[in-house]
Amino acid sequence: MSIKKSEFVKSSQNCEQCPKVDKPEYAFIGRSNVGKSSLINMITERKHLAKVSSTPGKTQLINHFIIDDEWYLVDLPGYGFAKKSKTLRESFSKIITDYVTNRHDVVCFFVLVDIRHNAQKIDLEFMRMLGESGIPFAIVLTKADKLGKVVLKQKVEDYKKELLTEWEELPEMFVTSSLNSTGRDELVEYIRYVNKVIAQG
To answer: Residue 122: inside a domain, yes or no?
Structure first.
């Protein structure tokens, strides 16, 4: 499941500045400390494609990357990091809301959640917004290496149970670890499968 080519395209402050949608587009989003940049680097097998910082909330723009000249990977600003100023949090929210509501050709949102924690209200609210807008999404459970196998399995089951209190059908779900590349092949395989379906019309 190797990715041969991954290149940064541009950073945008809003949808109007984003590249023309001429390829399938997959957006990655989550709370500011969920490990999004590390996951993107793990998927692309590029250590420094997305900037990893010890300070959550560093992604402040819509960042487009072109993968194998076939699809766009989009790194969106994180949400819900309390140490950021209220004004900055609002601007992040505006960027995210603009992208969700106006970028109509996004194939899938990958919503990242830290599997160590119980389902967080802000994540569930974001998924609800996507669902109400009819936007496809999948859930990426990050930091699986931080838990033992038994606890991890229970956490995944608990998360599914929480979702089923509101959703009739569960979205695609991937258990991942950027440290040991758990879930990488499954994610890339899923994206390639969807791309093939799109290409077949």
So the answer is: yes
